[in-house]
UniProtKB/TrEMBL annotation:
The keyword Oxidoreductase applies. This is aldehyde dehydrogenase (NAD(+)). InterPro entries: Ald_DH/histidinol_DH (IPR016161), Ald_DH_C (IPR016163), Ald_DH_CS_GLU (IPR029510), Ald_DH_N (IPR016162), Aldehyde_DH_dom (IPR015590), ALDH7A1-like (IPR044638). Transmembrane segments: none annotated. Residues 19-40 are annotated as: Disordered. Residues 31-40 have a biased composition (Polar residues). Belongs to the aldehyde dehydrogenase family. It is an enzyme of class 1 (oxidoreductase).
Length: 513
């Protein structure tokens, strides 16, 4: 079984795993509510996790509050040093972690390793950032006054993560939060808690080696209920939630009702535009990676292909040639490019969406089968589907978290393609393939793509950590990872200092008694 037992041992995963960790301690081992985690790759049971109770949650929050009092006093570059050590430990365990991501979630090993690399990269980024939490200084309008701004640690950051990036998205949040002086409470997806437990073992070692207190990095295993507790909790000033738009609307509403900060990273419905000036050789490769990579389970997966009518048939033929040849199978086996969907519910959504889109008038060109037979006994492997459809179809307007690519035709100017691209409720990632400078610039202009990510001659998925990641509209508006995304993890303060003997008022107001 691909040496998975040894991987689990290396990473400290036991047969029965505890429900929470406050950094140095584990807890909730004896909880009666448990969840069995099986691999979507072969259906085998991996291990069990205990689920946290309301009391466990209280304990974690109290430990986190306590730790914050210490952690916020540690100078930011010293906090960066801890993150540097975490990054180094992640390097040591990269292979094992990559395999566990792959086995628990189902993405191919290359992508599992890529996800761990993303954690390492964000650690490096955060280390540098720990010396660059800059505010500005301003010129005061009053004599002998100084004005500047500071960024202070915010407090407890709740991190709710999705199954499809079971560790990378947590690290984007947790490492930035850590150098910003915050403490974090991570509630991983209930579908992929084991890799979170594995990462927490690594974190725990680093905290212990540095004699740091409990509660700086916490993890709590549970389902939506624990996430909802965090959303409603006044003691958690920032809740960063990644997942479906349905979840984000709930979390956003609850956090909003108490005027907390919500960082939402929700669903996408990403399109690639292929104009008549596209370099089709690179475009087709980008489309394939974007549409079938991670078996269509990335928030940035390419779901719509908007193709100029002059090249439509050529593109369709090239995709029809490639799709039946996709190597689908166990993600830990070399050479496979498409693994399973996370569970049979996801397979059902896939099948239902294909039925629905055909009922609306779409044409299934290839794929769509649930695979069976040797190696496919789990019923979680599907043949990626290509469908000719119209943008306005209800099914096309929704994000189905599975490998379905809708081919949509446009004619005339690139503006028509941009209208189609923008004509959905989601706004995460988008790209255009063109060698025509006017088309490319139109796509990137104020009247171009309305997404948080807009690429030229690159697909929709596979972002680098250096940029701010996130999207508009129903994608939730949050930004994480690079650029100045760190600012949401801090509270901002404007300071004005008077070193004169007078008390001049701003705007020249006179108020003398
Ligand atoms: P999901 O919404 O089912 O679950 C995500 C997380 O939210 C889980 O940890 C879950 O327990 C928690 N949750 C669910 N309901 C909640 C509630 N009412 N209150 C608090 N927490 C709640 O999503 P999923 O199936 O795990 O992931 C797939 C979805 O995530 C897709 O829509 C995908 O596009 C999206 N996603 C977005 C990004 C991004 O950065 N924009 C990244 C990855 C995934």
């Amino acid at each position: 079984h691909h040496g998975i037992r040894q991987v689990l041992r290396q990473l400290g995963i036991q047969d029965h795993n505890p429900a929470f960790s406050t950094g140095l301690q584990w807890g909730g081992e004896g909880n009666t509510n448990t969840r069995t985690i099986s691999s979507p790759t072969d259906g085998k049971r991996i291990a069990t996790v205990a689920l946290a109770t309301a009391d466990d949650y209280e304990q974690v929050v109290r430990k986190a509050e306590e730790a914050f009092k210490t952690w916020r006093l540690v100078p930011a570059p010293k906090r960066g040093e801890i993150v540097r050590q975490i990054g180094n430990k992640l390097r040591e365990y990269k292979d094992d972690l990559g395999k566990l991501v792959s086995y628990e979630m189902g993405k191919i090993l290359q992508e599992g390793l890529g996800e761990v690399q993303e954690m390492i990269d964000i650690c490096d980024f955060a280390v540098g950032l720990s010396r660059q939490l800059h505010g500005l200084t301003m010129h005061s309008e009053r004599p002998a006054h100084r004005m500047y701004e500071q960024y202070h640690p915010l407090g407890l950051v709740g991190i709710i993560s999705a199954f499809n990036f079971p560790v990378a998205v947590w690290s984007w949040n947790a490492m930035l939060a850590a150098v910003c002086g915050d403490v974090s409470i991570w509630k991983p997806s209930e579908k992929t808690p084991l890799v979170a437990v594995a990462v927490q073992h690594i974190i725990k070692d680093v905290l212990a080696e540095n004699e740091l207190p409990e509660g700086i990095f916490n993890v709590i295993i549970g389902d939506a209920e624990i996430g909802a507790k965090m959303a409603a909790d006044m003691r958690v000033p920032l809740v960063s939630a990644t997942g479906s738009t349905r979840m984000g609307k709930k979390v956003g509403e609850v956090v909003g009702a108490r005027l907390g900060k919500a960082l939402l990273e929700l669903g996408g419905n990403n399109a690639i535009i292929l104009t008549e000036h596209a370099d089709l050789d690179i475009a087709i490769r980008a489309v394939l990676f974007g549409a079938v990579g991670t078996a269509g389970q990335r928030c940035t997966t390419t779901r719509r292909l908007i193709i100029h009518d002059s090249i439509y048939d050529d593109v369709k033929q090239r995709l029809l040639a490639a799709y039946p040849k996709l190597p689908i199978g166990h993600p830990l086996q070399d050479g496979n490019l498409v693994g399973p969907l996370i569970d049979t519910d996801a397979v059902q959504s896939f099948t239902k969406a294909l039925e629905a889109v055909q009922a609306e008038g779409g044409t299934l060109l290839t794929g769509g089968q649930v695979l069976s037979g040797a190696g496919y006994e789990t019923g979680t492997y599907v043949q990626p589907a290509l469908v000719e459809a119209k943008n306005e179809y209800h099914t096309v307007q929704e994000e189905t978290f599975a490998p379905i690519l809708y081919l949509i035709k446009y004619s005339g100017a690139v503006e028509n393609a941009i209208d189609l691209q923008n004509g959905v409720r989601q706004g995460l990632s988008s790209s255009i393939f063109t060698l025509n400078m006017r088309e490319a610039e139109a796509f990137l202009s104020a009247t171009g793509s309305d997404c948080g990510i807009a690429n030229v001659n690159i697909g929709t998925s596979g972002a680098e950590i250096g940029g701010a990641f996130g999207g508009e509209k129903e994608t939730g508006g949050g930004r994480e990872s690079g650029s100045d995304a760190w600012k949401i993890y801090m509270r901002r303060q404007t300071n004005t200092i008077n070193y004169s003997t007078q008390l001049p008022l701003a705007q020249g107001i006179k108020f003398d008694i």
